[in-house]
Amino acid sequence: MTKPDTEDIREQLVDAFEDANYPVSNPMELLPALPNGPATTFESGDFSMSVMDLRNAAQGTDDTEDRFPYETPESLADDIVEGLQDADKLPK
Predict the structure, then answer these.
(1) pLDDT in tens for each of the 92 residues of the chain?
(2) Out of 28, 59, 72, 84, which residue is the most buried by the measure of CB atoms under 10 Å away?
């Protein structure tokens, strides 16, 4: 087993979402920016998740739509990584 690199996942998220029209007010506004649409995956070590699975895993106890709007891809990536860490999908 190879541990996923949290910073690598964060960078992949920023790269994938950087072309969205900010501010974004809901997750559907992000799909056109993704290189493979909803089939886009993020991978590092043993970690591999599609953007759709990632959203579900990162939600935790909070409804992620309550965190919208996002002004930057960095703030969006930070919240996703935090949610994945809280769900024990990524190391802290």
Answers:
(1) 688 999 999 999 999 999 999 999 998 999 999 999 989 999 999 999 999 888 777 665 455 457 899 999 999 999 999 999 998 999 99
(2) 84
Residues 50/40, Cβ–Cβ less than 8 Å: yes
pTM of the prediction? 0.89
Looking at the DSSP bridge assignments, the partners of residue 48 are 43
Q: Within 10 A of 16 (CB to CB), how many other CB atoms are there?
A: 21
Q: Alpha carbon 12 to chain centroid distance?
A: 9
* Tokens 């579900």, residue located: 56
Cis omega (within 30 of 0) for bond into 91 = no
Q: Which domains does the chain have, with CATH numbers?
A: 6-86 (1.10.238.80)
Please report the sign of the dihedral spanned by the C-alpha atoms of residue 31, residue 6, residue 65, residue 54.
positive
